[in-house]
Design a protein that fits this description.
Blueprint (H helix, E strand, L loop, with lengths): L2 H23 L7 E8 L5 E7 L4 E6 L8 H16 L8 E6 L4 H5 L31 E2 L5 E2 L10 H9 L5 E4 L1 E2 L3 E4 L5 H14 L2 E2 L12 H7 L4 E6 L7 H13 L1 H4 L6 E3 L2 E3 L1 H10 L1 H4 L7 E3 L2 E5 L4 E4 L8 E4 L9 E2 L9 E2 L6 E2 L1 H9 L2 H4 L8 E4 L5 E6 L4 E5 L4 E4 L3 H11 L9
Parallel strand pairs: 3-4, 3-7, 7-11, 8-11, 9-10
Antiparallel strand pairs: 1-2, 2-4, 5-6, 9-11, 12-13, 14-15, 15-16, 16-17, 18-21, 19-20, 21-22, 22-23, 23-24
Helix pairs in contact: 5-7
Bound molecules: zinc ion.
Length: 440
């Protein structure tokens, strides 16, 4: 390439980059369009979402979950990104549209349907949360063309990309997962009137066949069925071809959903659990990350600095509607430091180290940490694992983290979270009283 052309190309790249960079730089003023990194793949590649509009109802389109063989869904996503960038009027005022062009960048790079760990991301989700058992997560799965393989992952939600999409969709109102190639549109397996209607409207506008069920083979661990379990309307358009992005047909489908936004992209309604009100995103986090493990809600949410903060038996959660990457997160809790001997490490292979703390997580606690997504649910260790002397003469180990405390339950041979949040709230009130009460 001649230097002169190179300069022109560089200027063009610079201009197109600035169109995205400038809005991000002014994020405080809520620009109409933005480009956000929502996470990274197993091999460290960025997973990005492009936003259009600033409305409260979040509508998400996800491309290329199945890597290289479904590359046309990534091409389609980029064409939609270009189109909505040029047609801001197409987004209703109360909607904000996010398009994730490639959810599985490692599969794209490695010429694979699966991710870098060889896991099929559309078979890896926790689909045990919906009311249908037929689609429950399994390691042995049916893949493309009904080929059976052990590509569901070692356990549900085990993959980095599964965790990225799980966190990103907690505050969404509707989602479209693009796949190819079957030439039809279908909703979540377990009955959802909104998803059923959305699939029919999308299919009709795009001239695709509507199918109430994918009847070629059972799908376990699918993202649409995971979404059903947290009451998030979800559909799968399967493009007709494996190569053609079928842009006009899918633009018509997306625009038909947007035109029916009040019904198909519904506002998030609160939930009542034991007489306690939970916002939908917090309820979804609680469900998706394990309601039984996290324990019941202790009180209604409190509004603090624009965030909704809610206490559960073992964890504090906050929902921040302005957080584009992950609206619900765990909050630090204050607990009395654990007194006891530091537990010995028996297996160096399973020691997790953390950059910001001298403490480590090892052995069974390390395996538990990885399995439950400890980054989200526990944070960094505040101290090393310690042995607790118990009255009955047995010993149990315990470890304290930023967001909670875990203990090895010797009797049942399992690891549990301790219900320390109430104690943490009382402790912080005694240290820094926020209410005008007197202890008598
Ligand atoms: Zn697919």
């Amino acid at each position: 390439m001649k230097p002169r052309y190179l300069v022109i190309v560089c200027i063009c790249i610079w201009f197109s980059a600035m169109c995205w960079v400038l809005p991000v730089a002014n994020a405080q003023q809520a620009p109409r369009n933005a480009r956000v990194q929502i996470g990274v793949s197993g091999q460290g590649l960025p997973i990005e979402a492009f936003r259009f509009g600033t409305g409260t109802r979040k509508f998400v389109i996800v491309g290329q979950t199945h890597g290289a063989p479904e590359r046309n869904t990534g091409v389609l996503s980029r064409q939609l990104i270009d189109w909505f960038g040029n047609h801001p009027e197409a987004i209703p005022a109360d909607v904000r549209l996010y398009i994730i062009p490639v959810l599985n960048p490692d599969g794209d790079k490695l010429e694979s349907r699966q991710n870098a760990n060889g896991v099929d991301l559309n078979r890896n989700m926790n689909t045990n949360l919906d009311k249908c058992s037929e689609n429950d997560w399994a390691q042995r799965v049916y893949g493309a063309s009904a080929v059976i393989s052990d590509t569901g992952g070692p356990y549900a939600d085990s993959e980095p990309e599964s965790r990225v999409i799980r966190a990103f969709l907690l505050d969404a109102s509707a989602v479209v997962f693009l796949h190819s190639a079957a030439g039809l549109v279908f909703p979540a397996f377990c009955e959802d009137p909104i998803a059923n209607a959305m699939a029919q409207i999308y299919a009709k506008a795009g001239n695709y066949q509507y199918a109430r069920y994918w009847d070629k083979y059972p799908i376990t661990g699918g993202m649409h069925d995971w979404a059903r379990g947290i009451d998030l309307p979800a559909i799968i358009p399967e493009l007709e071809s494996g190569d053609d992005p079928e842009f006009d047909r899918n633009l018509a489908g997306v625009n038909a959903v947007l035109a029916n936004a009040p019904a198909l992209i519904p506002a998030l309604a609160d939930r009542q659990i034991n007489g306690i009100t939970m916002s939908m995103p917090i309820w979804r986090f609680w469900q998706a990350y394990g309601a039984e493990m996290l324990g019941p809600p202790l009180a209604d949410a409190q509004l603090r600095d624009g965030k909704y903060v809610q206490a559960f038996a073992t964890i504090m959660l906050s929902y921040d509607p302005r957080d584009e990457v992950q609206a619900v997160r765990a909050l630090p809790i204050e607990v009395v430091p654990i007194a006891g001997e530091v537990a010995l490490t028996s297996d160096d292979a399973t020691v997790l180290t953390f950059a910001d703390t001298k403490a480590v997580v090892h052995d069974a606690f390390a395996r538990y940490y990885q399995r439950i997504d400890g980054v989200q649910l526990l944070g960094a260790p505040q101290d090393n694992e310690r042995m607790m002397a118990l009255p009955v003469g047995t010993q149990q180990s315990q470890q304290q983290f930023t967001y909670g405390v875990i203990r090895y339950d010797e009797i049942n041979n399992r690891i549990i979270r301790l219900p320390v949040v109430w104690q943490s709230m009382v402790t912080s009130n005694v240290i820094a009283p926020t209410q005008p009460f007197q202890i008598r």
